[in-house]
Each structure stands twice: as structure tokens, then as C-alpha cells.
Amino acid sequence: MKNAAVRATIDAYDPYRDRDVVAYLHDELARRSRWALLYLDLRFFRTYSQFYGFAARQRMLATLGELTVEQLGDECGCYRVGNEAYLAFSTSDRAEADAAAICRRWQEVRNQLYRPKDLVRGYSIGNGRHGTICRYPLVEVSIGLVDGTLRKGEHPDDIANICSVAITTNAMARAQQRSTYFTERQLRQLDPLADVDNVSPGSLDRLRAGGLAIAIEPDAALAFLLQSRLELTGYEVCVATSVRDWVDRPSERIPDIVIVDCEESAARCHELRSLPVFAESLLVALVNDRDRLSVLEAGANIVTPKPFDIDELLYWLQRLRPCPFKSMEFLPNTVHLGISNPTL
Hints:
Strand 6, helix 7 (about 160-175) and strand 7 form a beta-alpha-beta unit. Helix 1 packs across helix 4. Helices cover about 40% and strands about 20% of the residues. By secondary structure, it is an alpha/beta fold. Strands 4-5-12-11-10-8-9 form a 7-stranded mixed sheet, sandwiched between helices. A 5-stranded mixed sheet has the order 2-3-1-6-7, with helices on both faces. It has a two-stranded antiparallel sheet with strand order 13-14.
């Protein structure tokens, strides 16, 4: 990569140099026609930075910025948002090709940012507090596209609406759990959003929902604790006393999270992973035994010894299944959204 030239371009749009995102967008939109805005961020970046450290985090973020500028050109106006995202401009006729190229290139360059053993496994392993260990995926890039040619009405440069669409399309890309992009045209084709210009709070709530969590817990007190805390976090929760109890229930929904507490944890996790309904679920094992690594290798994403700390468990659930809208905040008295600068 052309580090010197690329870094100079990125530095020119340093968000901490007397400019905020609104001023940046106003300046860029004033000088562009047939524009397309790309909102790029990294899925699982926070977990990567937690275990790889500050220097590795900075290197990964700089790599995404350099890759973006190389693909879009020096006139892309690359702007860093907070600690883990970028805004940049392409043109409406080439934006999708640019986004696809960035995703492809990311799969190549990220290999330089991991330890060889993590690349061989296809995931990293980290240690939390209270003996918790987890396996977390390699970092993926998510890109949301806003198409300037779709702007209607008297205010084609409505910053609030542009930010809202950028965050929503980025969230849809993040929901795919792989390096990909999502466009405003695709968003407008979705029911019930097809006939509206702006995204309603109700639609956002559906995208932000925690999902379905299954707690396989024979202890009634622990089952109640898991259910109540998960529901407060935003999950819909079903409780079962055994694996078979849940599998035998008629359901068309695939659970997003499965928490299992049982004997022979490694065998149970291997069994769950062999069932199609649980193949893509985030699997949490509550264990008594000390052989936590074997349970992790059997398919668990999070392994925590009992007695477990519920706040620690919720922390790792958020880390490994983050809300798609991690970089957003509601603006007062409006249905629009504004891009926030979340801290790590």
C-alpha cells in the first residue's frame, strides 16, 4: 500500500481537527454530484482489539483506511468516525463495485493482522474474567451505501436522513456476519420500508432486537435468572430442561443464542452442533469441569465455569453477538439517526 500518500489523505480528514461529521458531510456534498456515500466499519473489531492490544487495533483500523483510499482514490474524502469506522465517497455508478472490491481485498490483507494459528483455526481464542474463555470470529468489514441519486424533495443533502440510511444499510450488512455491503436500493425494496423515504423507529426496533435465546437449564432458579436478565437485554427467551425438550418442540425459528448447562459438556456441545437447528447459533456452555478447552473445541463459542457471573456472561454475549446498530444514537424529537462516536 502507498502508506505515505494514503495516510496523508486520511489525516486531512481527521475528525478531531475542528470538524464534526455534519460539517464534513456538508462540505463534501456541496462539491459532489451523483455521489454515493460508503459507511465502513469492522465486525468483531472490539473483541480483536481487546485481545490483540492497542497497537494491533490501530494497525487494523489504519489498514481499512488505506485500503479504502486505494480503492476509491485520493478524492474519496475518507473521514474517520470515532474509533472504528470510516465514511468515504464514491460515485453512484461505481459504488457497488468499489464496495465489493474492498470486501474482497479485506479478506486478503487481514491475514497480515493475525497470528498464524488463528488463521489456521479460522477464529481466535480469548480469556475473560472469572475463568471464561471464548472463540470469536475473524474481523469482517461491513459497508453501508447511500445513493445520492435517490434523494427526493427539496433537500437532497438532508444530513440527518443520509446518516440514518448510512447506519441502517451498514447494520444490514453487519447482520450477514461476513464481509459484505448493503445498498440503499436494497433497503427500499424491503417490506415494510419500500414505500417510505425515512426509516421508522418501529423498523429500527426490529433490526435492533436481540433475537431468540434458548436456555437449556434444569435448575429452576438459574433458569429464571437467565430468562429475566436476557429479556431485560432485549432477547426473546425460551427455557427448556434438556436438549431433547427443546428439539421436540414445534418451531420454525432458529435460535440466535443457546445456553446449555448439563453434564458431559463437550459431548452435549458436539451433539448440539450436529443438529441443523443449532448449527449457526451462538453456543454458551456453563461447565463444572476444568477441561474448558475441550468444550470450546466441541463447538461452544463461550465457556464459563459455574458458579457463573451473569454480567460477565452478558458482556461476552454482547461482544460475540453485537447489536447491528453499535454506532448510532437517536436525535431528540426526530425519527432520524445521528452517527455517534462510541468509545472502546
